Amino acid sequence: MFTKLLIFGAMNTAAFMFSQSTINDTISRDKTIDEVVITGNSNPKASIKTSTSISTLKMKDIENAAPRTTAEIFRTIPGIRSESSGGEGNSNITVRGVPVSAGGSRYLLIQEDGLPVMQFGDIAFGTQDQFTRFDSFVSRVEALRGGSASVFASNSPAGIINFITKTGEKEGGSITQQMGLNYKNYRTDFDYGTKIGDDTYMAVGGFYRIGDGPRKTGFNSNNGGQFRVSLLKKFEKGSFRVYAKVLDDRTAAYMPMPVGVTGTDSDPKWSSLPNYNILTGALQTIHLQHDRTLGNDGNIFNTDVSDGMHSMSKVIGAEFNYNLGEGWKFEEKIRYAANDGQFVAPFPASVSKGSDFFNATNFANFGSAVYAGTNTPIDMNANYMKIALFNVKLNNFNNFVNDFNISKKWDIVKFNAGLYKSSQNINMSWMWNNYLQEVSDKNARLIDVKTTSGQYITDNGLLNYGMKDWGNLKRDYNTKYDITAPHAQVEINATEKLTIDAGARYDIGKVSGYFSGATVTYTSLDMNGNGVIDTPEQMVGSNDNINVPVNYRYGIFGYSVGANYALSNKNAVFARVSQGGSASADRILFSGYNYTNNDDPALDAVKVNKVNQVEAGYKLRGSGYFLNTTFFYAGTKEANYEATTQRKTENKYQSFGVELDGYYKITQGLDIKAGLTYTHAEIKNAIDPTIIGNMPRRTPKLMYSVNPNFNVSKFNVGFYLIGATKAFTQDNNKLLMPGYAIVNPYVSYQVLKNLSVSLNANNVFNTIAVTEAEEGSIAGGNGIVRARTLPGASYSVSVKFDL
């Protein structure tokens, strides 16, 4: 197989194709045109000489953009769509029109120091941004977009976002204290690096915070932090680095909320409902902080709901590189991460007015409904929800990654070959319950229901132990994904103006393990210990304990071929052709396939999601400005299963468009940077024939960001304008989400040489920015749609002391 890779790379190198060498130096104002980039390159080099599309974000850029979560950092990068409405995790991220068909980021991986945080970006309830935190220990963020990522990482054909951390080579550090002004948030970041011996450097850093976050949950929903340390030793022909990270952080997970929608599907009016502000409200409440369910081991499992997304990660890693002489170089990266935690979040399974919600149709022998713990009748004119409490124990998400590379440089040729090895555990337990709750953003009350004879059919708001409407959902996953991936890249400076590059990668995947809970099982059990089998206890959802074995293999062949031709020292043309893929992980389990038959065509059709891409364009640069124009095409074939809709999909997508990235220095103290992405996407094939020809859900035609910045003496002021045009909520292309433009202004002042004060705002005009919705139409509905929006206006002040 490795020989096949080398032969393929050599054959395609002979072809005359253009390659993108995007400069993208506008993303950071303090970046020179020849800044060295390392992400997606076999050899670190100046950005102007790369054949990849990379943007760099520096610390100051990120601070000015006022991100409240890790995913919000990516919104200013052209080509990347980051639906950052879920909190510190569970965000949906994609690149250049490649679809977000379920959740997470199936086609893009987040890396830390060149190795992936998780081997799959779309693990249900365990997305990679849950285990990634930005803090002042990060030196910069590099974002690689486009098909070239197919040969530089597994399961990441559309792009890579790499968090590059500090090593201590730059003496000093900082302490930053941030405080929310209109929301409870107290956060301290710190980092320090120093030389501790001959060519030996040490760096430490991290953060700790406590508070509610930008949405009101009624309790300290954000509580935790991260600590990191790095030790680097340099020697004459190379270097050795060892680093570690400990993350223990609790944050709120924001699910779709009840939103009022009037008008028509094509011209809807989105607004807050009575007693619930969609910009500041959350479904969490002080009245639902404890959940008791039947664990999948048969024992009672108690949960503190305020834990929310509890992410724990203990990481140890090392890097070693050595110059062997005569143009040969060796590089090794290795890391082990012990990951676990929990995901607890209320999800509105249904929402309606009390008179429609509480009746004999929905509750057999319905008599009355009262606020839990009281005899006070509810207001039948108010709105109420049936809550599915997502309660998922992340038992073991450990992963191991090793990437070995050896390279050789001749006069006009650079060659790199390597072997990538990784393993990813996906071991989690789903233990969901049903509750009844009023629609309110101020300590929402739970609801109890009585029969006509006065007998309770709920227990302090709990309706079902298990998700009866969705087939119980008492699931256990215990699977392991092993990947072995040989890869090779070659770059040829064919002439003074023409550079040709080609690369290939072959992923050999082996999946093993089992899952259980595929069939509906119920038992009778005294859950609350009162000695009586109450109505909800008569049918307690339980795991069927029937282990379904998983044992199959897959292969992904990826390549990327291109070239760059310099028309002059100020402009160039480029193009690239790529193929890649991402393996399906837990998303295809419980879908009824034969997971032990490698020859089963049904399983073979869904275990790998394939992406073909073409890029071409023109780049221009000069003194104080540049503009990069990239035309792109992507064809995607994928399979998926979605728990909240109980739907299985097998779709083919196509997208094409243009990406613009520009910068202009107007005067010495005034400059502006901007990015724009136009995308036309279409569903080309699907199990559901009615959606063929439609636009994929949640795909806007236009995304953009604009950042004017004024810097004079000790004073810096500017704002980010981030926006998107309208998009459909679902693939049926009926209900439209409105376009939006949010404004994030910032101002900072250098009080002393080592002391600065900053004021940041996020969504200062309280714009309603809907990122996703469960319903595909308001026709025949009740005027309520379950949707996620970006938070409303939040203000924070920071004091930074440079050490």
UniProtKB/TrEMBL annotation:
Please verify whether the record's keywords include Nucleotidyltransferase.
no
The terms describing its cellular component in GO are:
cell outer membrane
Q: Which keywords does this Swiss-Prot/TrEMBL entry list?
A: Cell outer membrane, Ion transport, Iron, Iron transport, Membrane, Receptor, Signal, TonB box, Transmembrane, Transmembrane beta strand, Transport
Q: Which residues form a coiled coil?
A: none
Return the SUPFAM superfamilies for the record: Porins (SSF56935)
Q: Which segments constitute the TonB-dependent receptor plug domain?
A: 49-160
Protein known as: Outer membrane receptor protein involved in Fe transport
Species annotation: Epilithonimonas arachidiradicis
